[in-house]
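Troubleshooting log. The previous run stalled partway through. Resubmitting the same two chains, unchanged.
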Amino acid sequence: MADSVWSNYARSSKGVILDMCGVLYDSGEGDGVAIPGSVEAVKKLKASDLKLRFCTNETQASREKFVAKLQRLGFDISVAEVFSPAPAAVAVLRKRGLRPHLLVYDGLLPEFDSVDKSDPNCVVIGDAAKKFSYENLNEAFRVLIGLEKPLLFSLGKGKYYKETDGLKLDVGVYMKALEYACDVEAEVIGKPSAQFFQSVLDDMGLQSHEVVMIGDDLVNDVGGAQQCGMKGVQVRTGKYRPRDESHPTVTADGMVDNLAQAVDMILSQRR
Amino acid sequence: MADSVWSNYARSSKGVILDMCGVLYDSGEGDGVAIPGSVEAVKKLKASDLKLRFCTNETQASREKFVAKLQRLGFDISVAEVFSPAPAAVAVLRKRGLRPHLLVYDGLLPEFDSVDKSDPNCVVIGDAAKKFSYENLNEAFRVLIGLEKPLLFSLGKGKYYKETDGLKLDVGVYMKALEYACDVEAEVIGKPSAQFFQSVLDDMGLQSHEVVMIGDDLVNDVGGAQQCGMKGVQVRTGKYRPRDESHPTVTADGMVDNLAQAVDMILSQRR
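Second attempt completed without errors. Output:
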């Protein structure tokens, strides 16, 4: 690896943020499968002096159920360490007195239990997966176009992700669809929003230049982290594709085969 | 109406192109319903010295079945007078030796009977309506992203249209979704493509400045026609919305309540 910049940098870093799907595990049937070496890599990080947080745009399950799944896959992880868009969205809705029409996966609905959803004055979409039916998308569209000033929130803006049976379209694609239909620009909650990354840094008590983000999504993980002043490292697992290494606008500070290699590299620099 | 420019213009025009859905009829259950006065308006145009063609982005049925529906609604219309995107797409595919993966409404499939669809090297989407399921959109995405150079054709780029039970998302919205997912720009076949309008003018044997286009879609009918040098008139039926009258980039040459009013106005100028 010609990654001397970030390996030098790794020596002085104080914290690591890990993306989850495609870095820790591949989703799919049932709980999905842990990516080889990732369970051990998380253990090594936890045994080190580095601060560790997990940052996901996962919006198919509540954080509780999501973390329980990761634990079943063998990961040492707790709810308090995980940052995901739905709780951030609930905070925004509360602060601005908004009542959402929700187009999200059934498993995410509990996160919004406390939110008034009557007479909606905005639309919130997450990775609704199979709930992104023609009928449901039409329904969300009609709510939006019926508002005097259409207001759309998107929980992430990912293009696609990899499940064990292949690539799947992500929420960003449906965000673009509704943006075009209604001539609006969505407010993105989750990666790569700078506000979202900053909330993780605040929780770690670290400055952005002290933290490395490791993800499989070049634009949303690596690029988003870089725009906040972090270093961004891409793994060649999950949704990684060779063309990422010649992307027109985003260049990772480091490229590694998988999380295990990234962690070994970071920790070996610190000995 | 302060539409003196186009009413003066109407005096010297030699031909009229009519959009269909939202101008002649509203689609919906069964055959939909004729818009009051439109059947008579078409009769009057046919009895005049003006050349008349119909130009639609309708892609839910073959032209034969589509025209049969209009005839049942009372319209004097024949297949040869109707221009729609599917036959234009077939011509493009043939010319360029392309084999499409089709994401179109079942009723449109007969238009592509003669096209080789094995081992696809491009994707063609039409207004697939309920066939725009999560599964089918994923499938089209996987074909596209698997191509060395993703090639996407969209039969129109409309945002939405009105059926008797409400507004429905149109093909353009799904085009934007796939464009974003695969970092490509679709080739649009149908309105507002200049090539498509030109094929209608060629068939009429008229120059663009001799023809008026009447439609309910400000951007695709009116704006598209204007970019070809025609006058564009919008009807306040179909997908018309009051905000169209203060659109930031497209201003219709004339606004009328419906087709009947447009035709009376054009013909009264000619007496």
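Takeaways: The CA atoms of residues 171 and 245 of chain B lie 24 Å apart. Chain B touches chain A through 27 residues (CB under 8 Å).
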